[in-house]
Amino acid sequence: GPDQPLKGRRALVTSGPTHEPIDPVRYIANRSSGKQGHAIAAALAALGAEVTLVTGPVTLPDPPGVRAMHVESARDMLAACRETLPVDVVVCAAAVADWRVADAADQKLKKGSGGDALALSLTENPDILATLSQAGEGRPGLVVGFAAETEQVVEHARAKRDRKGCDWILANDVSAATGTFGGDANTVHLITADGVESWPAQSKAEVGRGLAARIADALGPAA
Ligand code: C5P
């Protein structure tokens, strides 16, 4: 019906940071709160979609009406996403760590194990958005990514859309003055094949509802 336009549609959302182990008790992380990704998952569910939220470690509760899969590392996040396919739409809102420790230790590292300076060797993580964007049998019909930029926001986000191969990018200005990181508000630009829409500054919940409505328009009614 009109208030459940995503009924019969399957959606996948990634959210939060990832934790990349150094040893069994230590990890590398980032400051993502998961607020925007969780808000998108909640908004898609509110429009009737069957939503799987693949989330890294956050302090937020699982949104109502959503199947949550809790993961730690980027590799675990990609595996959980793959398990969830096929979907009609994926929104990659997670702040995935670009790097992981190449050879995480099985036992807790002891002080002095590296002399006076311990060197960690890092290796690149898989790019979940780029992987899910790759053409092929299981590609979701609509793939949406985020671009957090501090300057030339739209231009950089357009280049990111091309590079990743996704359909839409939500670009947000995360320069310090905006308070986006960890805050409740967000100023975004929606970049599609057709052009750019700049949305007014609004809450992350409103951005979630706006995106969910656009997704419903783009997918149309389920067969
Ligand atoms: O390359 P960058 O990290 O700026 O791209 C941001 C977009 O790519 C976000 O949608 C983010 O969720 C996604 N991403 C990902 N896997 C990575 C890195 C980024 O899905 N390893």
Give a structural overview.
- There is one protein chain.
- This protein is α/β, with parallel strands linked by helices and 223 residues long.
- The protein has one domain (10-99, 121-219): 3-Layer(aba) Sandwich (Rossmann fold), CATH 3.40.50.10300.
- The protein is 26% helix and 29% strand.
- It contains five helices and 15 strands.
- The chain has helices at residues 35-46, 74-84, 128-133, 153-164, 204-219; strands at residues 10-15, 20-23, 26-28, 50-55, 66-70, 89-92, 99-101, 113-116, 122-124, 142-149, 168-173, 185-186, 188-192, 195-198, 202-203.
- Strands 5-4-1-6-10-11-13-14 form an eight-stranded mixed beta sheet, with helices on both faces. A two-stranded antiparallel sheet has the order 2-3. Strands 7-9 form a two-stranded antiparallel sheet.
- α4 (153-164) links the parallel β10 and β11.
- α1 crosses α5.
- The longest helix is centred in the C-terminal third of the chain and has 16 residues, at 204-219.
- The protein is globular, with a radius of gyration of 18 Å.
- The structure holds cytidine-5'-monophosphate.
- The site of cytidine-5'-monophosphate has 14 residues, from α3 and β10.
- It catalyses: N-[(R)-4-phosphopantothenoyl]-L-cysteine + H(+) = (R)-4'-phosphopantetheine + CO2; (R)-4'-phosphopantothenate + L-cysteine + CTP = N-[(R)-4-phosphopantothenoyl]-L-cysteine + CMP + diphosphate + H(+).
- Keywords: Decarboxylase, Flavoprotein, FMN, Ligase, Lyase, Magnesium, Metal-binding, Multifunctional enzyme.
